[in-house]
Structures are given as structure tokens and as C-alpha cells.
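Forwarding the complex inputs:
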Amino acid sequence: MSAEYKNGKVKCIIVGSGNIGTDLLIKILRYSKNLEPVMMVGIDPNSDGLARAKRLGIETTYEGIDGFLKRKDLVDAVDIIFEATSAKAHIQNAPIYKELGKIAIDLTPAALGPYVVPPVNLGEHLDKLNVNLITCGGQATIPMVYAVSRVVKVHYAEIVSSVASKSAGPGTRQNIDEFTQTTAKGLEVIGGARKGKAIIILNPAEPPIIMRNTVYTITDECDSEDIRESIYQMVDEVKKYVPGYNLKSEPIFDPLDKYPIRIPGYGEFKRGYKVTILLEIEGAGHYLPKYAGNLDIMTSAALRVGELFAEKILREKSVVQ
Amino acid sequence: MEGKKIIINDVTLRDGMHAMSHQYEIEDMVEIAKALDEAGVDIIEVSHGDGLAGNAINYGFSKYPETEYISAVAGVLKNAKLDVLLLPGIGTIEDLEVVIDLGVKVVRIATHCTEADIAIQHIEYSKGKGLDVVGFLMMAHMISPDELVKQAKIMESAGADCVYVVDSAGAMLPQDVADRIKAFKDNLNCQVGFHAHNNLSLGVANSLAAVQSGADRIDASLCGLGAGAGNAPLEVLIAVFNKAGIKTSCDLYKLMDAAEDIVRPMMKRKGVEVVIDRDSLSLGYAGVYSSFLLHAKRASQRFGVDTRDILFELGRRRMVGGQEDMIIDVAVELANGLKNELEVK
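Prediction (whole assembly, two chains):
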């Protein structure tokens, strides 16, 4: 690897100049200890995100990934690529990144690499060249499902994410199926639920609604106090990198012996609890206003993962030297 | 326009699912579908109330898996086309794939009235399968006719054969319907449809206004079985259309019989009522998604607050279809508010 680490930072690029990519750029520039963004890649010369990047002194291209590949110097210097395009675009781009030996942190629901949700398995896949951050809804809700499943068996987890229409760009809109499918799988693989289901709602209300997530789990019998405690601990964990992550009310416990649930083709649940967790996620207001917590939860997760990869690269480099 | 036949799209087995809390028996569905088919109904919709893959804690689980209902109905239809509803964000193309093979001929893709672009994938896919594809713009009372036309055009250019004005909240007056249908007819080349809810007792009147303004397709259900105060009752609608000289393929007596002899006894057996009471009237008055009704009633019992207070708060927050989880949110908040008030006193 011929990359240089002059200022003690690892060079990265952001592919995708939409809401997510732009918010991530701002976060990296503001907070990152180990990452230096050197290019923002877009496909629309008039995109607001590219204009913003330019104003922030970051090189841009509107020729898509080819615009980056042309710049041999950058290709050599960069270690990490953040993909903030769409699932379809990432599926096309991923083999190119792999060929180049670059680490891809995928913020689309393409789900080619293993899933990462920071408070659950942040450090787990640092040996991989491609990791996936699931979806904003997944980043918001999987920690809660995990908080329940680490205490008691979760037979079923279901989440409803409501986001402001204004915060859902064309990528999200074209990816709506991938959103529900990838999130549902994340609830199982990382959240620890036996079966997962995800629903996303776009709400156009003005002023825009703050991102809301409702998490339902069907659990085995246990002490509800243990679940409650685990949930509160996890909220504090997530708050460390998304300060606007809040419970809207106490978790609600519906005893299944009183309110049994029958899922056709899956099973009937008459013992344990239906736990309802109501979350509100206020963003930091970096690129979009504070209602867009869906951006923050995703970009903050990406920053954490990127930071960790960069740390590892810097560590390995210093060992070599 | 004179003399054209109006296409009747029955929703007893889909919107009716809401009123039945999704607990339909397969035999009941089959019997109703047969009767509708024999009565000359053009299209019959079968899906979870919230569309394919609507089975969820948030919306309620149906008694049987969705594919069992759909296959059973597909097996008995002779003339009517089988149709399914899908809400992007809840169901996916994969869910469509599964049911298309079961004999589905019409696919309706529903979005909130301002979010048509999330349906593009699904419309294009269904069109590619050679199906009759309908765009379904819900809560259409919330935006102006001009804004609604813009959204309808997104669905039309994706390939929709018909776009619906959907009065999900049963909140429109006949003039609201006429304005929107006319705007569609003036600006779209595809067919135009209307879906009513009867919360303000205008289900049939609004459907009549829609046809008089040029609508090509109308939704209705036997006995009005549907969310909130139900849909336009199909048997009444056809009686009114007959009197108004509006042509359909439907046989009035057969529909009357199906309503009276099959659907009403089934509702009685299942303890299901579809009425305009203070709660369903509040839906229409406050402009709230009709499917919220039974969930709000349950939350009212669970948390000890007035159903109407929940519904009006949901309206004030401008909640859209699918946000049933916010019913709990509102109920909890209201209940906490009540508790605080009591403590202060």
C-alpha cells in the first residue's frame, strides 16, 4: 500500500452527494480524529451536496466513480470509501473497490458485506473489505432489539420507522424495498430476533416530523425489570454517538397471557411479553435540520466504523515503520 | 363520456379486513367472492387491510396466511379479475412475485398522496408482468387538486393504467371529490378512479360525484364493510348508479342478496359492526386515516383515554396511513397527561 499518512490521518472519499453523503462529510470534517476526506463523488453537477463539499474545500467530481478512478494519485492515497449512493449503485461499485483493495463502508441497504451496528458489534468485522450499515431504521432499532434479546429470547421483532418526507432523498425512495428487507434481516442477524419485520413510513407533515421508531418484540417469560434495565443501558450507549436518541416513554409491557398474539404460519404466543419501545431521534442539525435523525443515526454510525478502521490502519502502519 | 361502463372494484375482502380485525374465515371469503363474481363485479381485491405483507403487530395479524386467502378466491373466480393491494414501505416486490403466480390480474400500488415516487419500482415491475396496474393516492383530501395531479403524473409515467383519488379518511365533500377527479381527467391520459369512506355518510354521494366528474373506476364493498364507517356500500351504490343511468356490469338484486344473505350474517356471527358512531364520525371530521379506528378503540381501553381525543390528536399531528404505532404514542401521552392532572388536584 503506497498510501501516505502525512498528517496522521487516513484518506477517504465519499461516493454519493445526497443527504447522507453530505451529512457524513460534515461530520467527518468536524469530529474525525483519523479520517481525512479527499473527494466527494456525485453524478449531478448541480447537486447541493457537491456545492457544499466545494465550499468546504473538498475536491469533487460529478462523473461518478469514474471521476475518482481517473485520479490515480487519489486512488493510491485513499484507504476507505464511504458509499452513500443507492443499493443498486453499490452493487455495481463494490467489485471495483474490492479490486483496488479499498475498505468499503456501505451506507446503502445493498448488504453485500456483514452488518455492523456500533453498540452491538462495532469491532467485529475490521478484517473485512466491505461492511454494511443496514439502514437508518436498522441503526435506530437494532440496538433496542438486541437490548431485549440479550436478556430474554425474542421470538419476533417488528419495527416501524417514520421519517420526514423531506429527509428521504431519491436514493431512499428508490431503495424502499431494500430498506424493509435489509432492516428485517438486521433485526434477526444482529438484533437477535428469531424473525424480523420492518416497515418504513414517509410523512410529509410541515413542520417536518422528527424521526420516530417503534420497536415491538415478542419475548419469552422473564422479569420485565431486566428488560427495562437493559433497554435503558443501551439507550445510554447509543446516546454516546447520537445524543438526540431518546425514549419517548417508558417501555410498555403487555403480558401475552392477557393479550396473546397469533402470527399466521409462525406461531401463537401466550406467555412472556409484547414489549413496545417508542423512540424519537433528533438529529444534530448538520446538513438537514434536527428533524432528520435518520441521517444522524446512519452517518454517526458510519463515522464510528470509519474511525475504527482508520485507527487500525494507522496502528498497522506504525508497527511496520 | 356518456354511456361508458363504470368499472366496479370490490374491496369487501381487503378494506373489509380492517373491519373484521383481519379474522376472515377462508370459507366466508370464498362465498363472498363467488357471489360478487356472479353479480358481475369487475375486479375483486384480496389482501391484508394494509396491503400485502400487512401482517404485523402494528396492523394486526390475519387469521390465515395471506396466500391462503388469495389462492382460495383465485380458485372460484370465473369472470372477475383478482386484484391485490400493496403499500411500498410495508410490502415489497418479492411479496408481489409470490402472489402474481396465484392468478392476480390487477395490482394496486398505494402511497400517501405526496409520496408517489416510492411506487415507481412496483408499478414498473407489475407493468412488466403484463398486469393491469393502478396507482392509489391515499389521504387525497390533504393536498390540493393541482398537487395531487403532480403525484398522479408520477404514477402514470411509471406505467399506471389508472390512478385513484383515495379518500382514506372519509373526509371529502362531493365538491372536493369533483375537483380532484376533474383535475385528473383534464391532466392525465390514463383512467381515473375513486375510493370512498363513509365516515361523513357521503360514501355513495361522493362516488356519484366522482362518476359525474368523469371517473372510470369506483371502489365499494358489500354492506360497506371496510375501515372506519366503511366504504361506499356496493349494493346501495349500484342502486344509485342504476337510477342515475350510470352503466355497470353489476346485477343489483344479486348484490342485495349477497349483502343481506352472506355478508350481514357473517358480520353478525363475527360481532362486527360498521356504523357511523362518534368515533368513526370523528375520523371524517378530523381527517384521520380510517384504519386507525379499531386500533384507537383498543388503545382507548388499554390506556383509559377517549378514542376521540386520540383521533383528533392524530389528525392534529398530521399522521398518515401506516402510522398505527403513533396511536399508542398518543394514547400513552394522553394517559400521562391525565395522570399528571389528577396528581396536581
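The mean pLDDT of chain A is 94.
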